[in-house]
Design a protein that fits this description.
Elements (H helix, E strand, L loop, with lengths): L6 H33 L4 H29 L1 H18 L6 H15 L2 H12 L2 H32 L2 H22 L11 H9 L3 H4 L8 H5 L2 H32 L3 H7 L2 H24 L3 H15 L1 H4 L7 H29 L5 H26 L6 H21 L5 H8 L8
Helix pairs in contact: 1-3, 1-5, 1-6, 1-7, 1-11, 2-3, 2-4, 2-17, 3-4, 3-5, 3-7, 5-6, 5-17, 6-7, 6-12, 6-13, 6-16, 11-16, 11-17, 11-18, 13-14, 13-16, 14-16, 14-18, 16-17
Length: 432
């Protein structure tokens, strides 16, 4: 059988496409918000309930989705969740009130909770440790591309037909991707089109706990009991409200604060997401560069990326000091770059610290912490945006990220995954 050179990059491209479509389905609601709110008579606070329904379901399902992925495997597990979110995304078109939208978006959020853990699990299977942050950076790009595509797609759908059409298109595309995933994704040990040289490069370059499935699995309580878990979970808790705000509120922010119409939103709302794409890629390449330049280990290099991103988040935190909408857009672009660079580092840390049998579970638990904060902050925005405005809320997001950088340096130890395994696996609570 003909071997495909560099097959791991084709696999991460497939993962990235899934993330693109997942975030397209997620962000369709934000891009359609001005039209939806007018047609269905939805207030800002009611809109925040819709966003919170998605976030709450996503939050609750994060550890569940991660556990299911570890049980079913990356291929079957991810396909199941993708088909589910595709169906409920299309069903959003049937909603006629904010309550109906909240129910549909909650179902989408529950299914999409598997997206990042699945991408991380696929990256840990298909890439050696030294390339994993690059792989995560690429699939994380998909989140920004999906958010970037949503505004022009929604505007086109509204102009051509209705807002309902945008949700139907997004659902159909996600379903088609799920079928492609089932056909093409295989573990590198089972992929016949992978050359032996590349297979050895991938598996030989992985940490010991990613090379072999020894049947041992840390329990949820063991994971929660590690200092390393909280060193990742707390910074993610502090960082995620920024990304939730960027995804759910930028079109409405432009509409309410600067009076942008639908076409102007389509012209500008995607720009912060373009810079978020750059943040994903740059943030993925920086850790190995920092290792070479400063002689630090893998975990310290990721901490440095998180710190850089947190400092850059000061930009959007100052958005209230300027009156020009174009300056505001520029600061949001800086924020998009900043958040996605630090987000990729935080997500990748789970695969640095935890083994192949628990990486998706651990990532799901840290994701639960992150999305708990995102849910709460969405409700805060809904309650306060019409009274105090958006500017103080952006300032709070910058403070959160700076606190997250402090936490990661003080809580997360610079320990390898192998050292953590020796401390935890094999204790009486260990599952097998």
């Amino acid at each position: 059988m003909r071997k495909i050179k560099g097959l791991r990059w084709y696999m991460i491209a497939l993962v990235t496409l899934g993330t693109v479509l997942g975030y397209l389905t997620r962000n369709t609601i934000a891009a359609a918000a001005p039209t939806l709110m007018e047609e269905l008579h939805i207030s800002t606070q009611q809109y925040s309930y819709i966003i919170a329904a998605y976030s709450a379901a996503y939050t609750i399902m994060q550890p569940v989705a991660g556990y299911v992925l570890d049980i079913l495997g990356t291929k079957i597990g991810y396909a199941f969740f993708a088909v589910t979110w595709a169906i409920f995304c299309g069903a959003t078109a049937l909603a006629g009130s904010w309550g109906g939208l909240a129910l549909a978006r909650g179902a989408v959020g529950a299914a999409e909770a598997a997206m990042i853990p699945a991408g991380l699990k696929a990256s840990s299977e298909w890439f050696p440790a030294k390339e994993r942050s690059i792989a995560v950076g690429y699939f994380n790009v998909g989140s920004s591309i999906g958010a970037m595509i949503a505004p022009p797609l929604v505007v086109w759908a509204i102009v051509m037909h209705s807002w309902q059409l945008a949700f139907i298109i997004s659902g159909v595309l996600s379903f088609a991707w799920a079928m492609a995933w089932l056909i093409f994704y295989k573990h590198p040990r089972d992929q016949k089109k992978l050359s032996e040289e590349e297979r050895e490069y991938i598996i030989g370059g992985q940490e010991a706990q990613h090379q072999v499935n020894n049947g041992k699995k840390m329990s949820v309580w063991q994971i929660l009991g590690t200092r390393q878990f909280w060193g990742i979970a707390l910074p993610r808790f502090l960082a995620e409200p920024a990304w939730g705000t960027f995804n759910a509120w930028i079109p409405l922010f432009m509409f309410k604060v600067y009076g942008f119409n639908l076409k102007e939103i389509a012209m500008f709302a995607w720009m912060p997401m373009l810079f978020a794409d750059l943040g994903c890629i740059v943030g993925g390449y920086l850790p190995p560069l920092f290792q070479r330049w400063f002689g630090v280990n893998l975990i310290v290099s990721r901490k440095m990326v998180v710190t850089m991103g947190a400092l850059l988040m000061i930009g959007p935190g100052m958005i209230g000091l300027f009156t020009s909408p174009y300056v505001a857009i520029a600061l949001l672009c800086i924020g998009g770059f900043a958040h996605q660079s630090l987000s990729g580092a935080l997500i990748t840390l789970s695969s640095d610290v935890f083994g192949r049998n628990e990486v998706a579970t651990a990532n799901g638990l840290t994701g639960m912490a992150a999305w708990t904060a995102s849910t709460m902050f969405a409700l805060v925005v809904g309650a306060l945006a019409d009274t105090i405005g958006f500017s103080p809320l952006f300032a709070v997001l910058a403070i959160f990220d700076l606190l997250g950088a402090v936490v990661i340096w003080t809580v997360l130890k610079n320990k390898s995954a192998e050292e953590l395994q020796k401390e935890t696996v094999g204790s009486p609570a260990t599952q097998s």
